[in-house]
Each structure stands twice: as C-alpha cells, then as structure tokens.
Amino acid sequence: MVALLNVGLNLVLIPLLSDHGAAISTVIAELSAMLLNYWTCRDIVNLIILNKDTCKNIFEVLVGCMGIVIVCGLCERVSNIFIQIVLAVSISGLVYVSILLLLRNQFLFKLVKQLKKK
C-alpha cells in the first residue's frame, strides 16, 4: 500500500518538481508507513512513548542536538572546509556528550558503567 502511494506520488510530483518531487513523495510515503505501524501497535507504543523516562531522554537528546546545531553554525565561519569538518565533528561530539552528562542522561551513565567494567 505504501509502495503504491510512493509510486503514485512520484508519477505526479516528479514531472512538477523533479528530484524535489521524488524526495517529497518518499517522505510522505514513509510518514504514512510510520503512521500505519503506529496505528497497528498503538497499545504497545503508547506505553513506551508516554513513559516518563522516555520523555526525559527525548528532551535531553533534543537539547544535545541543539548544541550540535550551534557548534556547526559557528564552525561555518572557518574558511578551510577540511578544518571546518574536523572542528565541527570533534567539538559537536564533545558538546553533545557534555550536555548529556550535565542533564544526567541515564543511558549515557549506563554506558559509562559498562565501559568501566571492561
């Protein structure tokens, strides 16, 4: 069903928007697949999504992602693309982990405990 939706949207959108039309139709088809999967498993998924720990983890990850966006925006000022990429990747990683540590992300702390055991 989702594949037919994707093909149908491709037939309509590609002549109008070329490669952007293909991208849009794929996003719409994948979104519909996600919604169908959610509807089928909503009783199980709601237990997980509405869990307090899951909501806290999602918030912490989103704050970490905002840190990455800020770092990448600042690194765009560097003229050499190689140095820009190296700085963006390395500083973003440090900022992300630092934010998760400051917010006391439970999954990061579990990972650190596992690494200490080895």
In sequence order, what are the helices and strands, one letter per element?
Answer: HHHHH
The multimeric state of the shown protein is: single chain
Detail the poorly predicted runs: none
Shape: flat
Instruction: Tell me the strand percentage band.
Output: under 5%
Classify the helix fraction into a percent range.
over 70%
Number of helices: 5
Q: Structural class of the helix and strand makeup? A: mainly alpha
Radius of gyration: 20 Å
Strand segment count: 0
Distance between the termini: 47 Å
Main features:
mainly alpha; single chain; 118 residues; 5 helices; flat
Tell me what the structure shows.
The chain is mainly α. It has helices at 2-17, 19-49, 52-75, 81-102, 106-117. The longest helix has 31 residues, at 19-49. The chain is flat and about 50 Å long. It starts with a helix and ends with a helix.
